[in-house]
Write a structure and sequence with these properties.
This protein is α/β, with parallel strands linked by helices. The protein has 3 domains: about 190 residues, Thiamin diphosphate (ThDP)-binding fold, Pyr/PP domains (Rossmann fold, 3-Layer(aba) Sandwich), CATH 3.40.50; about 170 residues, 3-Layer(aba) Sandwich (Rossmann fold); about 180 residues, Thiamin diphosphate (ThDP)-binding fold, Pyr/PP domains (Rossmann fold). It has 24 helices and 20 strands. A 6-stranded parallel β-sheet has the order 3-2-4-5-7-6, sandwiched between helices. A 6-stranded parallel β-sheet has the order 11-10-9-12-13-14, sandwiched between helices. Strands 16-15-17-18-20-19 form a 6-stranded parallel β-sheet, sandwiched between helices. Helix 3 links the parallel strand 2 and strand 3. Helix 2 packs across helix 3, helix 4 packs across helix 19 and helix 13 runs antiparallel to helix 16. The radius of gyration is 25 Å and the shape is globular. The two termini are about 40 Å apart.
Amino acid sequence: MLTTTTADHRLYGPGGSVAPETVTGSQAIIRSLEELGVTDVFGIPGGAILPTYDPLMDSEKLNHILVRHEQGAGHAAQGYAMATGEVGVCFATSGPGATNLVTPLADAHMDSVPMVAITGQVNASVIGTDAFQEADIVGIATPITKHTYLVTDPDEIPRVIAEAFHIASSGRPGPVLVDITKSAQAAKTTFSWPPKMGLNGYKPVTRGHARQVREAAKLIAASQRPTFYLGGGVIKAEACAEFAELAEAVGAPVVTTLMARGAFPDSHPNNVGMPGMHGTVSAVAALQQSDLLITLGARFDDRVTGQLDSFAPEAKVIHADIDPAEISKNRHADVPIVGSLKEIIPELKNAVEETFAKHHRPDLGPWWQRLSRLVETYPLGWTTPEDGAIAPQKVIQKISQASGPEAVYVAGVGQHQMWAAQFVAYERPRQWLNSGGLGTMGYSVPAAMGAQVGNPERTVWAIDGDGCFQMTNQELATCAINNIPIKVAVINNSSLGMVRQWQTLFYESRYSNTDLNTSLNPSGESVVRIPDFLKLAEAYGCVGLRCERDEDIDSVIAQALEVNDRPVVIDFVVSRDSMVWPMVPAGVSNSDIQVARNMTPEWDEEE
């Protein structure tokens, strides 16, 4: 993530200030992006953005990737931003082009992803007349973005784009929409750089209040069962190294939410897992039985808390976040700290060490004894499918073992997402990308594409479901044409798997509209695959592989890893009856977590 200082510094670009010169509004757009250091843009042209695509052709600094759908451009910009920490950029035309960005914008807003979407708009003179391909994208996008702009004056373009990048990347990151009329793009203007920004009222707090930090240190020193509750904000703040030092200093258990996987290494003995609806028993217990939650960059999401009024009933709360609106929104904070975790965490570490030096370090032995028993008794695992098919968890675990922590893993939404969160070993930040808050099917392939563009030297896996994959797989053509060699593991259970799991558990196995016919029919007999993912991959210029037997998993993954000149799609045909466990059913207390169907773990809260 770009800090406020870095964002301001980047306004001057690699060559410093630029003297005034006469250009078109479209040239001003391209020049502004170049001065901001943008190198990659995802988009697709259309009438209202067409003036900007002409000078784009002359740019030696901007690499434009022509996608097959605007949703793909938006998710690719997200993947680029999440994998690199830089601002992702996408282009779209007016009307349906802009509205096709709504889902990625909402997704980026929920997950605090820095992204700037530049859309064309009809001529200013016809706005409001229902002109061809007119849509009020500013009105549509305002609730799902951090900020929006409508630009009708070409003189405003450099300032607005500079502000958009600053807003997207500073404070709590998020998407910004810049809608520019076709008439403003075509008109003449004077371009100079850097522009003077007019954001006097926008001043995110970065320094935590010293007194609050000291109060937090006192609570930590007095706690017998503290737990670090780590959210994605730690990664966004580039504060993972600082947090590791704090974790070592305190010695408390750490839970990493779905958005924080990789913020603290899975291999560290203090990491007790992912909490929430499909979290580990030890992580759920660490929150539920804690007497102090040290909450850093997390938002007490319902998927973590379960039934909110029964969540961590005995715990006091320290809540540090860059966004003051999150503090005490869902759970009252006994000690609120507003600011950048990059600054707050080192200050908290120093305060904790000073407090420990003045008083006694708390004995966390009994707390660790309790949690260690749960870690050992209820490890993540799976049962061999009764139908003889491949266990999907095994596939994902083997991908992790073969590719390692230097790879990037991008998941869609559903069962495969949860298995990827559970069975890939996460050791570093920005190793794991997924649609956490919005839960967008179709996210994986285009986001992996963006991640690969931003990290060309890394192996990038899109771990997708057969349902999610069919929503955006046209971007395989984009990848093949642009030499973006992502690897797609389709966890193919011929079903909308998570919906089917809920139908099994809560709807008496009445499988209404969840069969996809991609590998098996309900009786388990082979059928014509619709579509055949091998043929689909080959039609898109990719390598297509299929794996239907346990003994072939390793060799198929190895084949995929040997291919680096084009995308690879592997159709892993897995058991449709495999379920995601543990599970906290919706609307119940986390204390009612189940490790298998109708099986609740035994934990002794008085141990």
